[in-house]
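Q: You know discrete backbone vocabularies at least as well as I do. I have my own habits and do not want them to colour yours. No explanation is needed for now; the record alone will do.
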Amino acid sequence: MKIGILSRNPKLYSTQRLMDAASKRGHEVHVVDFLRCYMDITSKNPQMFYKGEPLQGFDAVIPRIGASVTFYGAAVVRQFEMMGVFSVNESVAITRSRDKLRCLQLLARRGVGLPTTGFAHETTDVQELIRKVGGAPVVIKLLEGTQGIGVVLAETVTAAESVIEAFMGLKADILVQEYISEAQGSDIRCFVINGKVIAAMRRRARAGGFRSNLHRGGSAELVKITAEERATAAKAARVIGLNVCGVDLLRSRRGPLVIEVNSSPGLEGIEGATGKDVASLIVEFAERKTVETASTRTRGTG
């Protein structure tokens, strides 16, 4: 197979691991900076170009789309889909996951456990919004934030009002969530492939912090998850439509609560904590689904 890894940086750990895994399984693999792709959008012969040359012959692509470039990255994935190339994650699922508000609304509609969450447009509604999520302390999140950036813990109502009003004054869209104190600054990252949790780790915030993201100085360790946590992670991935994703959970008194569904989860932390070859499992999934997709097309034209 010819596999494209859509990544802006071939030196990143996750990109390197996917390259190595695909190569070891006998595939021709190329890293493609999707921001340098440009498209010819036609109904009969859609094409993709990269550095002056057409991108042809790919059987599958593995998107590694950063949050700040979701719009263009999803457009590139969508173009590959138009060309009949299998994508490990579909473009529409990537955009669903990156719109935090839409993601939470979809999960809530399907009964997935979530922290109590508020969303408002006007600063005049701030006090009522804080009350609706249970009062201080509250977690305030920028809708466009990622890797723990744009996440603030406000320990008092006064602090929460100040942060919310400051963000709204900058025309930033925010979510206000209840603080799950019993989680004690830790969360669980479940790595889901094809509807199954294949690995899980507990992430802990560094001393004095509450954000457990590894990019923010958190630590990771192997964790045994419950059947309910496993089912919740798998359901969240299914609702958003992602074949490969990281589902982040908080352990609460009322059961597992989903705080994020990540369409481009990093591999370094999960592989280091669990010892599992997650990259090879992703490539193996791409192989299997590409063959199944090609077989379905063949039967449909036969």
